[in-house]
From TrEMBL:
The lineage of its organism: Eukaryota, Fungi, Fungi incertae sedis, Mucoromycota, Glomeromycotina. One of its GO terms (molecular function) is transmembrane transporter activity. The keyword Transmembrane applies. Its main location: mitochondrion. It is a multi-pass membrane protein. It is found in: Mitochondrion membrane. Pfam families: Mito_carr. This is Mitochondrial carrier. PANTHER family: MITOCHONDRIAL BASIC AMINO ACIDS TRANSPORTER-RELATED. InterPro entries: MCP_dom_sf (IPR023395), MCP_transmembrane (IPR018108), Mitochondrial_Carrier (IPR050567). It comes from Gigaspora margarita. Belongs to the mitochondrial carrier (TC 2.A.29) family. Keywords: Membrane, Mitochondrion, Repeat, Transmembrane, Transmembrane helix, Transport. Solcar repeats lie at residues 12-96, 106-197, 210-299.
Amino acid sequence: MAAEIMAPVPALVLPQEVVAGTLAGWAQVVVGHPFDTVKVQLQTNSKQYRNGVDCFKIIAKNEAFLGFYRGVASPLLGIGACNAVLFSTYSNFRRLIRGGDTSRPLSLRETGMAGALTGSVMAFVNTPVELLKVQLQTQKNQPSAVLNPYKGVFNAAARIYAHRGISGLYHGLPITIIRDIPSFATYFFVYEGIKQIIGNYNHNGNKSHLSSAELLFSGGIAGIACWIPCYPQDVIKSTMQSNLNFKSAGDCFRSLVSYSRKTNTSMFRLLSNGFGTTIVRAFPANAATFFAYEMALKILRVSD
């Protein structure tokens, strides 16, 4: 996720944005993947765990440290690319909304619009990356995986493509679009808003003078905020992508409703499974993302 990285400064060339975005994505994965593994387990196999702490203990006991990085190859490869696309796309939409006037700062409403447009694009990038990640993270919960487990991200991609074609790799795309549009709109809006408040309070209105700690704080808060309008969609997406037999998001939702009635479990609980773990992950992961991105931009700008 991202923010007011493009202020009134000379526009970065595309390779610089790609490099900075890739480094930001890697930082996010290294910090956030253990939390993401716990979140996906809670979303897709909630009957096995009492809560996030219980899930953490069980993974640590059964699989040790490496268990938390199960399926990390897909996001490490994919999230780096995703963030490169994310920041480049966001920058281009900002320029488009400005109408070519790079000296004009965007309003927060325009920033949210750029974020929403970015989300609509990012869903097409995120869907296959997240599908492979979820399949690898949850395959131990699937009976068929005991007999023929995926050997890695490329093996998983090849087998899914062989059996289901390109549509198999894009299983869950519509619900990902519904998730990513409000998520990225909120993400950029909040990041810019927090930076604006801090800039007005501490730096005479200049957002470009924020310290590293202030940037980390802004990114962390934005990371938390972006999950609030989209978490139920994310639960449905993860559930769909852990079981490729679901025909649609509606089919998956009806299955959750049926499970809720049979087990007397509230839909609120089902659609919020793993939320606490996600929020705990969101602050450090997104703080790391923005810190890496801002530092990379600073270095790349100096070298221009």
